[in-house]
Structure formats: C-alpha cells, structure tokens
Amino acid sequence: MAASGRTAPTPIMEPNPLDPSPDNIADIFELIEKHRLLEVVARNQETPRSALLEQLQHRQNLVELRKRLRTRHPADIAHLLELLPVADRLVVWRELPVPLAAQSLVQVSDGIRAALVSDTPRAALVDMLRELDADDLRYLSPWVPSDVIDAVVASLEATDRKWVEDEEGNRADTVGRLMTRELVSVKDGNTVAECLLTLRQCASLPEHLDRIFVVDARNVLVGAIELGPLVIAAPEEAVSSVMQRHPRAFVPSDDAHDVAQAFERYDLLSAPVVDERGKLIGRVTADVVVDFIRASADQDVLALAGLRKAENLFGPVLDSARNRWPWLAVNLATAFVASRVIGAFEAEIEQLVALAALMPIVASIGGNTGNQTVALVIRGLALDQLRAGNRWHLLRKELTVSLLNGALWGAVVGLFATLVYHSAALGAVMSGAVFMNLVVAACVGVLVPLGLHALDRDPAQGASVILTFATDSMGFFLFLALASAFLM
Amino acid sequence: MAASGRTAPTPIMEPNPLDPSPDNIADIFELIEKHRLLEVVARNQETPRSALLEQLQHRQNLVELRKRLRTRHPADIAHLLELLPVADRLVVWRELPVPLAAQSLVQVSDGIRAALVSDTPRAALVDMLRELDADDLRYLSPWVPSDVIDAVVASLEATDRKWVEDEEGNRADTVGRLMTRELVSVKDGNTVAECLLTLRQCASLPEHLDRIFVVDARNVLVGAIELGPLVIAAPEEAVSSVMQRHPRAFVPSDDAHDVAQAFERYDLLSAPVVDERGKLIGRVTADVVVDFIRASADQDVLALAGLRKAENLFGPVLDSARNRWPWLAVNLATAFVASRVIGAFEAEIEQLVALAALMPIVASIGGNTGNQTVALVIRGLALDQLRAGNRWHLLRKELTVSLLNGALWGAVVGLFATLVYHSAALGAVMSGAVFMNLVVAACVGVLVPLGLHALDRDPAQGASVILTFATDSMGFFLFLALASAFLM
Fold first, then answer.
1. What is the ipTM metric for this complex?
2. DSSP H or E stretch at residue B307
3. Model-level pTM?
4. In order of start, what are the domains of chain B with their CATH numbers?
5. What angle do CA B468, B474, B477 make, to 5 degrees?
6. B269 interaction partners in chain A (CB closer than 8 Å)
C-alpha cells in the first residue's frame, strides 16, 4: 500500500497537484497572461476567419485555466487573486468552481474580499456562501450585505444562526473574532479510555486538534490535555489526574493582541475560550493567531507611513488615492506651518542667503533621528516592554543618546558649513542648531507614540507625521533664531 | 479526584502561581522598585543603627523577590528582564535559580541575551548551560563564547555534540535554525495499532506534537498523520492508507521566510524537515514560527527607520548611539547634497526670498507620498504579491495615483502660495513643482524597494532614507528651477 513512497527516490519532489508549494501558481499566471494577450488580439481582429481561430484558441485556453484552478489549494487561489490586476482577477474568479471560490473568499485579504463581494451577483454569492460552515460564515459576515447573510443563514439550525449573526461577539481585534466553536471536551470524571472513546465517536474531528478540554458537570473548564500524553496514559487512569489544570483561558471580548502575545510567549498551539462564568464555549488555534500577527505587523508598517488601511496593490486608482489623503492633508498643513516659521525670518535670509541652503540639513537630521526613536518606542509598546515604572528611564536614555549624537554630528555639520561658507561663526550656529534639534527629536520621538498609546490610539498611526512636523518647524526655528542672534 | 475543579465556581480565576497571565510580574516589578529605593537609602545612611535596620529590610526584600521569581514561567522572567534598566536587570538575574536562569536565557530577546551572557562569569554560564537540552544549546550557541560551549558539550553524546556544533546548519534565517530533532516517526508498513504502540513506548513525548511522520525502510519521508485521525482510525488499518501523502517538507538550508509563509498560507501546526535525499531529520513547529514572524515584522519597522538591528531599549547608551550612526551618516551625506542643490540657486533666492520659505513644502509632500508607496511595496514583497508579471502594473498604478494626487494637492498648495504671497505666477510654479515631485516620489518609491530586493538586500533597510534623498533634492531642484525659468 505504501509502494508509491518506496519506489520513488525523492517522494517530496513528485509532482503533486495539491502540494502547497509556493510556486505552483506560476503556470496559472502564464495562462492568464496568454488570456490577456488573446483578448487584445481578438479586439483588433478584422477578418472573420482568423477571428474564429482566435476564439477557438481563446476557449481552449480558458478550459485549460479552469482545469488547473480546480486542483489548487484555496490559499493558493487567494494568493493568486491578490497578485492579479483587477481585470485578470475577475477572469480567474469567474472560472472557479463554487466551493473553491467560497473557500478562497475566506482566505483572501480584506481589501480584495470587499472587491470580490461587490463584483459578484447576489444569487451567485448566496450559492457560494451556502458551501461554508458556520465559523466561516461568521468570519465573512462583516463583508457581506446583510440580506445575503440572512438568505444563507435561513437554512441553518438556530444555534448556528445565532453564532453567525452574533455581531457583538464578532468585533474586530477581539478573541470572539478569532475563535472557533469546534472543539472536543470530556467530563472530569472520565477515564483516559472514555476520553479516547469520546474522540472516536466524533462525527468529524475539528481541524488542528492538538488538545482536548476537560469540563465539570456544569461545562466549566477545569483542565486540558494534549493528544500525545492522552494516548500514552494508562487507559484506566482518571483524566483529571493527567490533565493540565487551569490552562490559560480567554473570554470573547478579550483583545486579540493579548492572545497573540500569550501564544508567542507561552508557545501555545491552542487556547480555550470561556464565557464570563467560566463555561467552555470555543477555542483559538495557532494558525489563526499566525494570520493575525502577520496582519497587525503589516498594519504597523503602513500606519507609520500614514496609510489608513491595507491597500489593495492592484485595486482601483481612486480608492488608492483616497486612502492616502487624510495623512497627506495633515502633512501639508504642518508643512505650511513650518513654511511660515521660515517666512518669519525672511529678512535674515535676504541678508545671508546661505541660511536657506543650510536649514534643511538641520530639519532632516532631526527627522531621521526622531523617526529612529519612534520606531523603537512603537516596538517596545508592541512587545509590552514599556510600563509606568520604566518610561522615565527610556526618556532619560534617549535624551543621553541625543546629547551624544548631537555633539558628534553637530560638530560634523558645523565643520561642513565652516568649510563651504568660510565662516566659523556660521559653523558654530549650525552645530548648536543640530545639537538642540536632536534633543527636541528625542523628546518628541518618545512622547508622541506614548501619548497616542495613552489616548488608546494606534501609536504608529501618524506618529511619523507629527514627529516630522516638530523636527522641521523646530529645526528651522532654532537655526534661523540662532543665526539672527549671533550672525546679524 | 476532580474535586478541585468542581468545588471552585470559576476555576480559571483562581490564583495560580504558574498561570501565565500577562500581569503576573507586576508584584515583582514593585519589589525591584523597593530594592532600588532601599539601595539609595542605604548609600545615604549615616548612623550605624538605622543602617542595620535598613540592611535587614533590604535582605528581607531580596528573599521575597527570590521567592516570587522561583514560581514564574521562564517566558515571564524573560519579559521582566527585557523591561528592566540594566542595574535592576542584573539584580533579578543574580537571584534566579540556575535552571530558571538557563530557560530564561533561551527565551529572552537577542540584545538582552548578549548583555546577560557578557555579565555572567564563565563558570556560572557553564553550570547554567548544563541544564539545557541539545536543541536549546544549539539555539544559544551563536551567543555564547565557543570555549564555554566546548566545556558544556564535552559531556554530551557524539550525535548531540555534532548537532550543537553544527554551524553550517544553524545559520540565521534558515530552517536549520528553527528546526528541532524531536519527533515521532513510524514505518509505512505499520498498522494504526502499531503506531499507537510506538507512541506509548516513547521515553518522553516531544513538545507540541500535533502529528507523527511516516517513513519508508530507508527513513525517507512518505507521509504524515495528525494524532486526532490516528486515534479514531481502526487499529488494524495500515497507517499508509490513512496518512496524508507527501506533506510539504523543507530542507535545513531553506529560507525561514518561506517556511513562515507556508505556515501562514496553509495553516500548518508543524512541518517535516528532510535532508537532500528526502530522509526525515527533524520538524519545525508553529510556536517557533510565531516567534520568527514577530521578530521579522519588528525588524521591518526598525529597518524602515534606519536602524541596523533591534536595540535593547534600556541598554548602554553608547551601543544605542552607535546603532543609529550608519543611516544617520547616509542621511547627513544626502542632506549635504540637497543643500548644495539649493546653494546653486542662491541668486534666485536672494532675488525672491519667498522661495526659501516655500521650497520645504515641495520636499515634504514628496517625501510623505513616497514613503506611503515604499510601505505598500515592502508589504507586497513580504506577502510575495509582486512578481515579474505584475510589477509593471504596480508602477503604472502608482504613477496614475501620483498624477491624480499631484493635480489635486498641487492645486491646494498653489492656492496657498498665491494667497500668502499675492502672486499667481508663484502659485503656478508651486503647483507644477508639487505635481512633478509626486511623480518622482511614485517612481522612486516603487523602484527603490524593488531594486534593494533584486540585489538580495532587505527592501526596508534604508529605503526611506534613499527615498527622502530623491524627494528632497528633486523637490528643491524642480521648484527652484521652475522659479528661475518663469519668475526671474
């Protein structure tokens, strides 16, 4: 029976249509390229005879595409949908068999999902969603028009319907959004043999089952046991004597970031979810947590750059442009203010035009060091390393670093100005301005993310724009004011 | 036997010394604060009598600290070590029992680990490392002086010694660094009952065992089966008929990022590792992948800000200052160049000093939009969404967005300049410069991360500094050159 494994020298290299290899969508990619080309050719066709030929080829190409798509993992289809431009994406989307389309819709990233839902006719969407279980439906529900969800859940059992429609328990970034109800639990009076029997009697085992939970007569969670230790325990032993007592449990309203941190810190593969009375209602598995951690990290990178949300790389231009407006507007407003700071010193600049050439250096080095501090503080907050007790230490340390760097790089900049403009006085003013602006950058770099965090905002969102505002305005002001005092 | 669970109304709320709750280090934190205070008091003590009293209190405090530390999870100790300033960290480090110190050293972040190793006497370090298994020793080996490792591995068996000393297989960011040798494998001729027997005969089960692997007579991997399905399969069935064939396997030299992506995409809890001939040699588990994903994401945030490596938030000032120098130096060099661009137009600025006040706006808005593009491209690369086939689409889209935003925000900026300086010509020059600089920002924002990636560099490292150089210099140049052409 295991012959296939034995005869092949390197079985993992065997072509396997369901093998989730990172590159098994390259062939599909090619077919779509060809499809696009054929469409362009078809559009420019003049003689009917060659048009017929083209059509034939076109159809063959689509048949081949459909055949290949059918054998792929939904995660690969989702990935493919993400990296195709809009028109090509819709070609693939239309050729997918309904169950595969439904699974891919669950896997695809938020931006693309919204686009696909709005591009799918209502009836087709209902058919698609009927393929999914209650967990997946619940997950998709925020993206799907409520009348579609209503039509789909009408055929579900009452408990499933309630689960899908539970808006309160399905809020973004909560445990309720990450959890599944699929689990196996046993009573604390059971023996190990009875637990194994319970497992065998499951109609279908939940995916990613690394451990089962132990509850008391009122369904209150009292312990957990991994499948490995369960299998090797003596069959007549009581499960309560081999289980781990009081595993770390979460409630649906808990912050998803806390769960991610617990998984990261305590190396969990799954965690139980209980209600306020401690009754077992579900679990969170590591695969969902991996997706969440990845998505939050991406969010930080985007938020730091002043983007409101993850943008669909190949989505509509207007959506993309709009996504960038809010922080662009803030940036522009702050740039106007910085410009007015310079405007206040126009007399000095007219007198010594070198000031105009040198002032951006002061602003730039301040912005750069300040952003380094911002990144460190944001990371510290994400890792929960900054508490009331040690924030003062951080500020003191960043200030010391800025004094050191300010003295060093201030001297370098001053030397440059002295050499280029043959004026030691101008060099000294430059040095002083850089030194002071680095101190400003350190303070603002620490305080802005901490302040945003204290206000319950994402500390990354906009921190960089606010920081640059401070280092630009103060950089210009410090340099021009010092020049006005000592050089005029 | 299960009485404890039944009598407690909400067992998960019970105080549990080993409960890994995020806040169970708050009390320790307080004790250390007190310790620090007592030390200050002791130093300023004058009368011998009160000094004695203080000493007593001081010693009591340390005893209490030691008692509390002993009961905590190594991950919590590691977290505590990360958020303490250097002096306090060493107090905790010295009070830890040797086995707990050893486990914490494995868990702690890289920067702190290096500091702790250099602060620990050689003999104490050897004692500590003797507490660890070969996997942990291998993981720590890059941070520990080689003579210490030699002293510790001398007492190991030959295969363990080879495993720990395997520098080639233990390179950073490879599967070899993430893998463990601990696994359970069965022969493909076995029945399900024989597999369960193999499990029961293990001296100790590996941690995080979600599935076992099936190999042929030559130890070549042919399949895998999760423990759940194994338990519910009929005992007399052949394992080869219930196993999953050809699971996705990795070799030790594979890039760790590829593994992370596979775990994320295909929802894995573990993956087999094989050698070049397909022979099973180890596995990677989801908990290690979670740590890797988190660390890489942090790395991106820091690299974008121009920091070479993760910095110890409370580490020595000189180390921190140095960590910021390389990109600071690059930033300074590019700022000098931008300054010379302005210097070339000093005659024009002398003639119309408003140019000096307005030019930073052009540079600033270019930098802001360019950084938004950089963040999107870096994220697209991290998610493997950018391939040869669609990069052209991306550039075209970003250009279209920049044309749209350039027209819109260029008009806003032009209006501002017209109103403030009562000159429509100046406003028109401003608009034109902003429009063109946004196009520059879009091109550079797409091409720089793609270029760094093509050169096999981290696309985040320095992308922002290079981008700002382009948008600053070109912003100044475009604005001043247009002004020189149309306003003079």
1. 0.83
2. none
3. 0.84
4. 21-169 (1.25.60.10), 185-285 (3.10.580.10), 324-486 (1.10.357.20)
5. 140
6. 208, 210, 269, 285-287
